[in-house]
Amino acid sequence: MTHQPDPLSHAEQTARDWLAVIADRLGSDDRHFTYRALRAWLHLVRDRLTVESAAHLAAQLPEFLRGMFYDGWKPNRVPIRFDARTFAQRFAREAAISPGDVPAVAGAISDGLSALFSPGQLDHVFALMPSSLRGELQGEELRPTAPAPRSSGEHVRINALEDSVMALTEAVSALARGLENVPTNEPQGDRAAKAAQEAHRILMSQGTPQT
């Protein structure tokens, strides 16, 4: 009988290689901690993205890590709007670390993933994030600001504006992809119609005003 190689061995080794890169960036030999921290990063970033952007990000992951990425995902509820402070609290809870350690850990993971993803992939993801959350993912500590009248309302408005810009960017990208003149068996009209439907869905999910 001819020996057949384990069909899962390559996928498992690739996942281990990725975790090794993340562990190196974290400066840790604890594989359980590395796994928890990476899982927290992926889940929180995933939940802040639209369905389409999350799918593009997941496509970059090894097969086993892609399963971790989608575990517990509720696509009908995304994107979930949360700021850098909520991100830090959730990250700390899921990774079982102190909130004060979140910027360093999140930044190290971002650095590792930037080397593993296709060039520019992580930059695209960060461009879809509010500036405060983008800083947290890049390892910048959240600086407390002195309370001021209407600061909370202003913060909410800024986050809402950034979310609207993100939605418009995603919608334009979806339309552009649908109008690209690329070799395909699908009629151009069908592709354009699907792209328009996807753009409409993105705008509706964000509650972005349409003209």
Provide an overview of this structure.
- The chain has 211 residues and is mainly alpha-helical.
- The chain folds into 2 domains: 130 residues, Orthogonal Bundle (Globin-like); 61 residues.
- The protein is 67% helix and 0% strand.
- The radius of gyration is 19 Å and the shape is globular.
Helix fraction bin: 55-70%
CATH architecture of the largest domain: Orthogonal Bundle
Let me know the CATH homologous superfamily of the largest domain.
Uncharacterized conserved protein DUF2267
Largest sheet: none
Protein name: DUF2267 domain-containing protein
Pfam families: DUF2267
InterPro entries: DUF2267 (IPR018727), DUF2267_sf (IPR038282)
Region (Disordered): 180-211
Key features of this structure:
DUF2267, Globin-like, mainly alpha, DUF2267_sf, 2 domains, about 210 residues
How are the SSEs placed, and which strands pair?
Blueprint: H1 9-26, H2 31-48, H3 51-58, H4 63-70, H5 84-95, H6 102-116, H7 121-127, H8 131-137, H9 151-179, H10 188-206
Helix pairs in contact: 1-2, 1-6, 2-5, 5-8, 9-10
